[in-house]
Amino acid sequence: MGCDRNCGLVTGAVIGAVVALFGGILMPVGDMLIEKTIKKESVLEEGTIAFKNWVKAGANVYRQFWIFDVQNPEEVAVNSSKIKVKQRGPYTYRVRYLAKDIISQDSKTHTVSFQRPKGAIFEPSLSVGTENDTFTVLNLAVAATPHLYPSTFVQIILNVFIKNSNSFMFQKRTLKELLWGYKDPFLSSVPYSIPTTVGVFYPYNNTADGV
After folding, report:
1. Has residue 28 been placed in a domain?
2. CA-wise closest residue to 100 among 85, 112, 90, 88
3. Which of 11, 20, 120, 164, CA to CA, is 20 to 30 A from 143?
């Protein structure tokens, strides 16, 4: 026997009620399962997805540098002429976010202590030259001396060290030296215990950023 219009309406109403009932039951359960999974995987505990991505980043990070190359160093040093520079770049490095080291967890305070080794790898394919490209730049150690030691007597002594080390107001340095550090001849000639390495990011490669 066929089902008339009223029968169809009743059947539809029953099915709708059943679906609504199951939906009302399953939605809170689904929300609970999702919330539980998020809490489990987002906690910085060994074995979780969050911990794996935190220890070592999956995406590559790059840094690019442009260097201003001085074109008239002699004119500036002798005649105090207006400095002329040429911008060169980009020089690209891939930042190494190495796996974090010496990781310790405190369950009482819910904190994590760690050290993160740092490093950078030169990327020739994304650069205009090599790490051995040379630039004429200001000699920071020599240029800063009059400002750090305004005493005339001290400047006379330091000028002796500057001349004896064959240092000048400007110097030629490679990209690698400028960024990551080089032994400065002037600072090395000073008979006192002072830092002798100069570099924009020194120290960086193969160092840690503390705990």
Report:
1. yes
2. 112
3. 120
**Does one domain contain both 191 and 91?**
yes
Residue 105, domain extent: 55-208
Q: Is residue 49 part of a domain?
A: no
Q: What is the pLDDT along the chain (211 residues), one digit of tens a residue?
A: 555 555 655 565 556 555 555 555 556 655 566 666 555 555 666 667 666 666 666 678 899 999 999 999 999 988 989 999 999 999 999 987 655 555 556 566 666 666 666 788 999 999 999 999 999 999 988 988 878 888 888 889 988 999 999 999 999 999 999 999 999 999 999 888 888 999 988 877 554 444 4
Q: Is the pTM of this model over 0.70?
A: no
The domain total for the chain is 2
Domain membership flag for residue 47: no
Residue 204 class from Cβ within 10 Å (0-12 exposed, 13-18 middle, 19+ buried)? Answer: middle
Say if strands 197-198 and 207-208 run parallel, antiparallel, or are unpaired: unpaired
